[in-house]
Amino acid sequence: MPDPMPIPEQPLPSPRHSSTGKRVFFVAVGLFVLAAFAFLALFSYYLWVERYGDPAKRTQLNERFQEQLSLLPGANTGRSTVDIDITKQIHPHNPMFGNADASVTIIAFIDFECPYCRAAYNDFEQIRDQYGPAVNIVFKHFPVSQIHPHAAQAALAAQCAHEQNAFWEYYRLLFEKQQLSDDALLSYAHRLNLNEETFSSCLATNKYINEINQDLQDGINAGVRGTPTYLLNNQRIEGVTKLESWQNLIVEELQKS
């Protein structure tokens, strides 16, 4: 156990002033950390499209990046309303699970290297199992490459597995094994009995870069600032959401319909 701190010679501030100062300090630090993470998420997206996007997309992104960045200091976290048509966020390349005609749609923006996505994984898996027949779950990639260097490659690998109708099985391995090296990505394809030559070619040629760019752009349009983020009909749910909260949210939406 460490030695106790020595008693300072100068007079200490009054307890009221000391506790107030500490609260202000921690609030300030918390706001700074939140803004920093939001900035990194947006900046990583910027770098991704700078590398892979076409000139027109880069020009558009520069405008959107500056606009979104200016909103960060006043941004809320948790649960908020989304003023977009979420059906326009769903594309043929997006893996789906459940009932495509359901009145409740959940769009999940996920980064396979994000520790918060991993923390949310088990509860969201239970939601998929429990409410699959009653909801439409749509997966979208949002790799935050600036702080998660393996996320983009994992996203590409998952899309290559989706090409062989094995997305959700591959998705589970990515989260449960938590290994994202190139060898690990190839080993998951072998474990799932995928056509390994087709899978390797798909991954080596970055076949689904444009589709992942589309998911990233959709995320920016929906106000996604980090992962995991979910769109539950017209609600944006940010961060790790526990099973009980998911159940309440879904039941609430089912009752509306």
Helix-strand blueprint:
Elements: H1 15-52, H2 55-70, E1 79-81, E2 96-98, E3 104-110, H3 115-131, E4 135-141, H4 151-163, H5 167-177, H6 182-191, H7 196-204, H8 209-221, E5 229-232, E6 235-238, H9 243-256
Parallel strand pairs: 3-4
Antiparallel strand pairs: 1-6, 2-4, 3-5, 5-6
Helix pairs in contact: 1-2, 1-8, 3-9, 4-5, 4-6
Cα radius of gyration in angstroms: 21 Å
Structural category is: alpha+beta
Shape: globular
Mean pLDDT: 80
The named CATH superfamily of the domain at 78-256: Glutaredoxin
Strand content: 5-15%
User: What spatial order of strands do you see in the largest sheet?
Assistant: 1-6-5-3-4-2
Compressed to H and E, one letter per element, the order equals HHEEEHEHHHHHEEH
CATH names the topology of the domain at 78-256 as Glutaredoxin
Tell me about the largest β-sheet: 6 strands, mixed
Helix content: 40-55%
Poorly predicted ranges? 1-18, 61-77
Q: Give the beta-strand count.
A: 6
CATH class placement of the domain at 78-256: Alpha Beta
- The assigned CATH architecture of the domain at 78-256 is 3-Layer(aba) Sandwich
Number of helices: 9
Tell me the distance between the termini. Answer: 59 Å
Explain what you see:
With 257 residues, this protein is of the alpha+beta class. It has a domain of 179 residues: Glutaredoxin, CATH 3.40.30.10. The chain contains nine helices and six strands. The protein has a six-stranded mixed beta sheet with strand order 1-6-5-3-4-2. A hairpin with a 2-residue loop joins strand 5 and strand 6. The longest helix is centred in the first third of the chain and has 38 residues. The protein starts with 14 loop residues before the first helix and ends with a helix. Keywords: Disulfide bond, Membrane, Oxidoreductase, Redox-active center, Signal, Transmembrane, Transmembrane helix.
